[in-house]
Design brief:
Blueprint lengths: L4 H5 L4 H9 L6 E2 L11 H12 L12 H15 L9 E4 L1 H13 L5 E6 L4 H8 L3 E6 L9 H11 L3 E7 L11 H11 L5 E5 L22 E6 L12 E4 L2 H15 L4 H12 L1 H27 L12 E5 L8 H12 L1 E2 L1 E2 L10 E5 L4 H16 L2
Parallel strand pairs: 1-10, 3-4, 3-5, 5-6, 6-7
Antiparallel strand pairs: 2-8, 7-8, 9-12, 11-12
Helix pairs in contact: 3-10, 4-10, 5-6, 5-9, 7-8, 10-11, 11-13
């Protein structure tokens, strides 16, 4: 039977696979997935209900409902001082996941090089491979998990015209670190004037704690496509609403791919997302969640450091990327299995996130303070009996 060789070569999502492997442990505390524990705000749910009740049941425009695209335009101006045309420069996707697929598939030709700072979200690699591209990993573990101008320049010099795309994810999954405006400016100085496209995955942009989120699109507006959505900012993972914004000439091929892949997103979900992104209450909702995540981070990081973990300060998203204590003689994967089975706490091994992640674990603090307190207690007991 005929199977696309690229599809056959792709491995299942490693994060999901590890989560499944540990989910059947009795009394397990799961700090694995990037799944907000908040409920969707009532006024956002009501917008979806109203959409259904008003028989909003016909095909929406492929790029997304006009109301949602206008809300996205408002959101980008209000939060990040970035202006995009609702007709030609915005596409609504089925989550940021579809945005990753659409942009990478639309922009990459066979053999193109795609620069990927690592450790990195595990979905990027497989999608690049599916598109026929080759990943150029840059190990950031020695530079506070941030791509440096020197590393970027070295890749540009080495690969020349073969390097067509740079994928930046900030705040980062898995590390929680992000870039300052000055750090992004140094990267932009190298990329400006080249034919390199920047895909900026900013799905955690509303969840920053010590710095204001700044997009590289402010510096490279003609070269940058931004991926974002409501999954993390408004706890709407199941609604599956993301979006792509960027210059019309880059949005057009992604919009075409989106049209032939999914046609359009669901009307009730888009109505809910328009309320979340376009209303004053929606802005307060995301701030309330951000404040709660900050409180959790401020508890969890020092508590884990007291147990012997080394942790780069996470100033965004809701992850702690913790280096295993010096007395641990297992690799991170074996440690993760052992911690789940004997310690009753499930985390994600750092090696799943590629080079630079070995010897680390990713812990999600998208969980209640009660759960985090109990998890720290269990990890402490596990290490004491190690």
């Amino acid at each position: 039977m005929g199977v696309n060789k690229r599809v056959a070569a792709i491995q299942p999502n490693a994060i999901r696979a590890f989560d499944d492997q540990t989910s059947d442990v009795e009394d397990i505390l799961k700090l694995t997935l990037g799944e907000p524990d908040f409920s969707v705000p009532q006024h956002v749910k009501q917008a979806a209900i109203d959409s259904i009740s008003s028989d909003d049941s016909h095909y929406a425009p492929s790029k997304g409902s006009v109301a949602l695209r206008k809300a996205i335009r408002h959101f980008m101006i209000d939060r990040y001082d970035l202006s995009y045309d609702a007709e030609t420069e915005i596409v609504v996707t089925l989550g940021a996941t579809e945005g990753i697929y659409d942009t990478l598939t639309a922009f990459i030709n066979d053999g193109d090089k795609v620069l990927l700072p690592a450790p990195n979200f595990s979905m990027y690699d497989q999608t690049i491979a599916l598109a026929g591209g080759d990943v150029v990993y840059v190990d950031t573990s020695k530079s506070d998990f941030l791509l440096t101008p020197e590393q970027l320049q070295a890749a540009v010099d080495q690969y020349g015209d073969q390097l067509t795309t740079v994928l930046l994810n900030y705040p980062s999954n898995p590390t929680g670190v992000t870039y300052t405006a000055e750090q992004l400016a140094a990267l932009a100085d190298i990329l400006r004037g080249t034919d390199i496209t920047v895909i900026a995955d900013e799905i955690y942009s509303e969840l920053t704690y010590d710095v204001e989120h700044y997009s590289i699109a402010k510096l490279l507006p003609e070269q940058t496509v931004i991926l974002n959505g409501v999954s993390k900012s408004h706890a709407m993972t199941g609604y599956r609403i993301g979006f792509i914004v960027g210059p019309a000439e880059l949005i057009a091929p992604a919009a075409t791919l989106h049209q032939f892949t999914v046609t359009s997103a669901s009307n009730p979900a888009m109505a809910a997302a328009a309320e979340a992104l376009g209303s004053a209450q929606g802005k307060l909702d995301s701030k309330r969640m951000r404040d709660a995540y900050r409180e959790r981070r401020d508890y969890l990081v020092p508590a884990l450091r007291q147990l012997g973990f080394e942790i780069p300060q996470p100033n965004g998203a809701f992850y702690v990327f913790a280096k295993l204590p010096a007395n641990v003689d297992q690799d991170d994967y074996a440690f993760g299995i052992d911690l789940a089975k004997r310690g009753k706490v499930a985390v994600i091994p750092g090696s799943i996130f590629n080079i630079g992640g070995e010897g680390y674990i990713r812990i999600s603090y998208a969980a209640s303070m009660e759960t985090l307190h109990e998890a720290v207690k269990r990890i402490g007991t596990f290490l004491a009996n190690y």
